[in-house]
Design a protein that fits this description.
The complex is a heterodimer of chains A (111) and B (112). Chain A has 111 residues and is mainly β. Chain A has no helices and eleven strands. The model of chain A has no long low-confidence stretch (mean pLDDT 95). The chains are: A mainly beta (111), B mainly beta (112).
């Protein structure tokens, strides 16, 4: 019963470093998305995908890249980390026009 | 742009009290979801409402979708410490690839 799996759970980066947050789902969901959660600001959409090979920008895409080569995986890349990217990141998946299933998040600190 | 506004942002009550959380928008949504999130975990779906005026009950929780599909409320009867958590509403548009817009959340603390 894996659902949506995110790795790592915690990460500390120095400014300018790069990294990839991994997300995998085993529910054959077509839609996948990345959100960041900051205190008092709810969840804000970074990037989303409606199927393999298709991605689009959300509300706060700057500084992040994504790709969707398979239905199961949707990695989020930070090319040059900045302190403003300190946040908790959630990956979610769903069938079209259906509620979201979330992973347990990656807590990222950029110093 | 804050499309979904939740109120109150924080709520601290005693066990046994009733409470209502509101989720308001100027936009019409195809559907609206309520999620509950506990520390260190992702949000978990409580309910989806899709029809204007719809009322759904989940044990002590009652969810209502406004007639115009722009707002919603969550009412908890006789709150228990296990209800403590962050409650999030999210609206979706079927014409917008089902992308969800989230409110900024209501943090509920129920004291024993």
């Amino acid at each position: 019963n894996a659902g949506v799996t995110q790795t790592p759970k915690f990460q500390v980066l120095k400014t300018g470093q790069s990294m990839t947050l991994q997300c995998a789902q085993d529910m054959n969901h077509e839609y996948m998305s990345w959100y960041r959660q900051d205190p008092g600001m709810g969840l804000r959409l970074i990037h989303y995908s409606v199927g393999a090979g298709i991605t689009d920008q959300g509300e706060v895409p700057n500084g992040y890249n994504v790709s969707r080569s398979t239905t199961e995986d949707f990695p989020l890349r930070l090319l040059s980390a900045a302190p403003s990217q300190t946040s908790v990141y959630f990956c979610a998946s769903s069938f079209p026009n259906s509620p979201l299933h979330f992973g347990n998040g990656t807590r990222l600190t950029v110093t | 742009t804050q499309l979904l506004k939740q109120s109150p942002q924080f709520l601290s009550i005693q066990e046994g009290e009733n409470l209502t959380v509101y989720c308001n928008s100027s936009s019409v949504f195809s559907s609206l979801q309520w999620y509950r999130q506990e520390p260190g975990e992702g949000p978990v779906l409580l309910v989806t409402v899709v029809t204007g005026g719809e009322v759904k009950k989940l044990k002590r929780l009652t969810f209502q979708f406004g007639d115009a599909r722009k707002d919603s409320s969550l009412h908890i009867t006789a709150a228990q410490p296990g209800d403590t958590g962050l409650y999030l509403c999210a609206g979706a548009h079927y014409t917008n690839a089902g992308k969800s817009t989230f409110g900024d959340g209501t943090t509920l603390t129920v004291k024993p």
